[in-house]
Amino acid sequence: MTLNHQSLIRSIKVVHSPKVKFKTQSLISYTRVAYLTGRLPNTIAEELISLGKIACDIIIISLISQFKSIISMLFLGHLGDIELAGGSLSAGVANITGYSIVKGLAMGMEPICSQAYGAQKLTVFRQIYKKTLFLVLVAGFLISLLWLNIEPILLLLGQNQAIISVAKVYITYSIPELIAQAYLNPLRNFHEDPKYNQTPHHIMYFNLGVRGVALASACNTVITILGSLTHIYLSRTAVRPWDRQAIDMRLEDWKPLLSLMVPSVFSVCLEWWWYEIMILLCGLLSDPQASVSAMGILMQTTALLYVFPFSLNQGLSTLVGQALGAEQPARAQRTAIMGIGVATVCGLLCFSFTIVVKNVWGKLYTGELEVLALTSAALPIVGICELGNSPQTASCGILTGSARPRSGACINFVSFYLVGLPVAVFMAFRLDMGFLGFWYGLAAAQASCACMMICTVVWTDWNHQAERARELTWTTEEQASLLS
């Protein structure tokens, strides 16, 4: 379908009605998918192929990005045990107070952007991007002020003074990475290319210690941003996020974005915060240095394994959002069920991986016997956690695609804080299970979260969700048209 054909369809007089107008544009978007792919994905096999194409690209990008964190932890481990513990603590604090918030804010734009791009409403697409970027950068500046004064907060939480001294240096030099991530996360909704993701750690050769590790991470993100912007500028087909329209600062025009952004922040942060709270609690155990170091290694391991269900999350969010935007609720339901099945298989593979590598994985990071013993004992429990984490992450992507981040936030709060956290504290301190008690608590949280997420998806009224998608896109388009 050519642009002239699209213009002809849009000029038909019946589109003066808002609902008919949306249906006509959805038909244009849906026909565009058929034109690009040759036929509509009407079978499970075709849905699997579509999901695989999206997921594989995200896996490549996420793995390269994750290698940056793994390499950082490896260098910290080789610098010394106190550096590994301090780096693990500061990384946990950075995730709790910074990166999770930045990522959650950026996720708020995904439902609107996917539907707007599918309907070729690029004005809406760019306006949402600029508003998101503005909010995320402001949040990054405020968070950096907190990081500069993090030492008294860690002392108040009862952390070891020697570990705090290293953590303070690491998190201070991580501020450039925070600002860079604040810019990169919204940009990733426009463009991602594996060749622009690098893992430079040459700063280590300048003997900067933990400061070098933190600065090298920031260099990686800056290179990714510059590469992506260069590609967007030179490409003839890439959608460019900039235009000459100013950001509309009227509060009512921000409501659709804020209504998705706030629950998206809580949905991401509630789960991330739980993991990082466990690092803080490790500092209260009898051997805080070994416990914090082992927790840091296992956190990197879970983050690596998370790449695969996360790719399903993103793929399902895109496909479900497109199906609802095209007013195909049956296809959205089929995609959701298929995605949960694939995620279950992914969970089984992750569990098998943790069993196979449990006696050798920790040796990549450190030679300390106490840390290695804790890592080896906890890895099978990590695998059990992945059996629940994979389907619940995929289900969360389905909720995102159907613009329901509030449901995900509520489920995360109940499962991680009303189920998982009490179980973890009780088993670690009251039953004297120590370090392993925290991971049994996580297993309880993941199991309850998976059950609630899957039930929410199964009981979804997909016809109602298609109606909601129509209303959301039409409302946002009307607001953007006022700026044209």
UniProtKB/TrEMBL annotation:
It comes from the Eukaryota. The chain crosses the membrane at residues 132-150, 213-235, 256-275, 295-316, 336-357, 369-388, 409-431, 437-460. Signal peptide: none annotated. GO terms for molecular function: antiporter activity; xenobiotic transmembrane transporter activity. GO terms for biological process: xenobiotic detoxification by transmembrane export across the plasma membrane. It is found in: Membrane. Belongs to the multi antimicrobial extrusion (MATE) (TC 2.A.66.1) family. This is Protein DETOXIFICATION.
